[in-house]
């Protein structure tokens, strides 16, 4: 349940920030940076804290990292901060959910690279497709993002299906 929930939380930013390539790429870089810093911060605490204190530390570290990132963006990249809106704050919730699904535990490096890599590929692909048509068009709306994401996933499944020897 937790792994499904953790992955489903990535859907909102995937659709919400992929209307332009710069916005999608910026969000991906920031989410990877926050995730990496979160993993480093929890690494030393994970085994030393009880379950309740681990949750408190997890929430505190994730919220602090995102708040610091938001303050930096407000100071040095205000337009980007305004464009990313609430989606950057969702990164803290994402970190906590991934923590409790075992995502940041030792030996999960390959899973981390795969998840953040796939997330980046989808963000960039949707950003390119939605940005090609132009600003102010129907492609910047969220329903179009869902449709494009569905088409990309269907295309991937078709590719896998037809590339297998029959």
TrEMBL record:
It is a multi-pass membrane protein. This is Electron transport complex protein RnfE. InterPro entries: NqrDE/RnfAE. It comes from Pseudomonas yamanorum. Coiled coil: none annotated. One of its GO terms (cellular component) is plasma membrane. It is found in: Endomembrane system. The chain crosses the membrane at residues 25-45, 57-78, 84-103, 115-133, 139-159. Keywords: Cell inner membrane, Cell membrane, Membrane, Translocase, Transmembrane, Transmembrane helix, Transport. Pfam families: Rnf-Nqr.
């Amino acid at each position: 349940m937790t792994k499904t929930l953790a992955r489903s939380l990535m859907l909102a930013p995937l659709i919400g920030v992929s209307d332009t390539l710069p916005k999608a790429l910026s969000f991906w870089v920031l989410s990877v940076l926050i995730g990496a810093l979160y993993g480093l911060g929890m690494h030393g605490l994970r085994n030393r804290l009880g379950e309740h204190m681990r949750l408190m530390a997890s929430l505190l570290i994730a919220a602090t990292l995102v708040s610091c990132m938001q303050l930096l963006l407000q100071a040095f990249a205000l337009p980007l901060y305004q464009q990313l809106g609430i989606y950057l704050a969702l990164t803290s919730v994402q970190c906590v959910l991934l923590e409790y699904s075992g995502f940041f535990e030792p030996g999960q490096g390959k899973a981390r690279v795969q998840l953040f890599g796939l997330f980046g590929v989808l963000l960039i692909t949707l950003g390119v497709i939605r940005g090609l048509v132009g600003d102010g068009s129907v492609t910047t709306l969220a329903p179009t993002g869902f449709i494009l994401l569905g088409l990309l996933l269907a295309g991937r499944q078709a590719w896998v299906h037809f590339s297998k020897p029959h």
